[in-house]
Write a structure and sequence with these properties.
The protein is an alpha+beta fold and 366 residues long. Among the domains are: 114 residues, 2-Layer Sandwich (D-Amino Acid Oxidase, Chain A, domain 2); 140 residues, no CATH class. The chain is built from 10 helices and 14 strands. A 6-stranded antiparallel beta sheet has the order 6-7-8-5-11-14, with helices on both faces. Strands 1-2-3 form a 3-stranded antiparallel beta sheet, with helices on one face. A 3-stranded mixed beta sheet has the order 4-13-12, sandwiched between helices. Helix 6 packs antiparallel against helix 7. The protein is globular. The two termini are 47 Å apart. The relative contact order is 0.11. InterPro entries: FAD-bd (IPR002938), FAD/NAD-bd_sf (IPR036188), FAD_mOase_fung (IPR050562). This is FAD-binding domain-containing protein. Belongs to the paxM FAD-dependent monooxygenase family. It comes from Linnemannia gamsii.
Length: 366
């Protein structure tokens, strides 16, 4: 691709994004209760009895989006919600994730390397777990333990519990302390990880059909929840934001019809691209986290018999799709892989044409 990867902890990404947003634009601890929309605008009502008005509502509030739930409830009452959007998301795995406190590099060789040292270990027939470790800047180790539901009692107990409390996570952690890593056992890493920083995550997947209605639009996990086995969830969420921003940039004037057309254009441009990712993320989950007999056989076949040319072809296809914000300077192509041409911005084209016409007029007048 021609670009080196940049590695950092997720809180660092949060800080970078927050630094670019004026503080008065951020309103924390706001729980959406409901919203109303019409030809004039959209109004959100929050749990603290405050309201806010705007032209467009973007639901970027995750897999269990309050915006999506309220939108779908309204559409269902009107008979406008597809049956497929009434189904529950599939849950196949549970993951515990954590990041250690700062460690002494002398005790953990490899932590001062320029790049990340990462390891993925798939359990044997008696261990339906996959565990991952990788180093990050700041002399810390991120770890992730994934267990397939239906194959381990401790995982099923976690699934039945709807509440997250550290004691429940500790029970699962205690049962796998003996798992080996390149840094000792998982228990060694658990002991230097603050328990309050350990999170339980469900691996869910669902591709919703309805991404927008009226002045409301969904992006990221609110519109499509992919299994995180291939990193497609975060990547597609960012690509959603870029493409939606491009279509919002082209809205002029901000009439209701133009807004609806922009939201439709965003969904039309993104839906098939996201849909193509689903079988890949599903297959990657089976290869990395699956422990049934058929999944073990599949893993053996794919890891040992798949030609490198097939893997490279899929990699080329995945990396060719690189949408960028039309209203910003474009990142140059540096690598050898092909890229899919960017859809041009109508507004940018009109502004460029206006400049050409203006320049031509000035030349004639001279």
């Amino acid at each position: 691709m021609g670009y080196e990867r940049i590695l950092f902890a997720r809180p660092a990404l949060h800080d970078m994004l927050f630094d670019k947003i004026p503080k008065e634009k951020l309103h924390m601890a706001k729980k959406v209760l409901s919203f109303q929309q019409n030809h004039e605008g959209v109004m959100l009502r929050f749990s603290d009895n405050t309201t806010v008005h705007g032209d467009i509502l973007v639901g970027a509030d995750g897999a269990h989006s309050s915006v999506r739930q309220h939108l779908y409830k309204t559409l269902a009452k009107q008979g406008l919600l597809p049956k497929s959007d009434t189904k529950h998301m599939n849950k196949g795995y549970i993951s515990l994730v954590g990041t250690t406190s700062e460690l002494d590099p002398a005790d953990y060789p490899g932590m001062l390397e320029e790049d990340s040292e990462s390891n993925l270990i798939i359990g044997d027939k008696k261990t339906p777990y996959t565990w991952v470790t990788f180093t990050i800047p700041g002399n810390k180790i991120c770890w992730n333990v994934v267990v397939q539901l239906g194959l381990a009692e401790v995982a099923d107990d976690q699934f039945k519990s709807s509440d997250w409390i550290p004691q429940q996570n500790k029970a699962m952690m205690d049962s796998i302390r003996h798992f080996k890593t390149t840094y000792g056992t998982m228990g060694d890493l658990f002991d230097v990880t603050p328990i309050e920083g350990v999170s339980k995550v469900y691996f869910e997947d669902m591709l919703f059909e309805t991404w927008y209605h009226g002045r409301t639009v969904l992006i990221g996990d609110a519109a499509h929840k992919l299994l995180p086995s291939s990193g497609a969830g975060a990547v597609n969420a960012m690509q959603d934001a870029v493409i939606l921003a491009n279509h919002l940039y082209d809205i002029y004037p901000t009439s209701f019809e133009n807004i609806k057309q922009a939201l439709k254009g965003y969904r039309d441009e993104r839906f098939d691209a996201v849909k193509d990712q689903y079988p890949q993320s599903y297959m990657a989950a089976k290869l990395m986290y699956g422990h049934t007999f058929s999944e073990r056989v599949l893993r053996h076949i794919v890891f040992n018999w798949t030609p490198n040319s097939v893997t490279q072809k899929q990699l080329n296809k995945n990396t060719a799709y690189r949408p960028q914000a039309n209203f910003l300077p474009q990142a140059p192509k540096r690598g050898t892989m092909d890229t899919i041409p960017q859809n041009p911005s109508r507004r940018v084209r009109e502004e460029e044409q206006a400049q050409i016409n203006k320049h031509a007029g000035e030349v004639v007048s001279l």
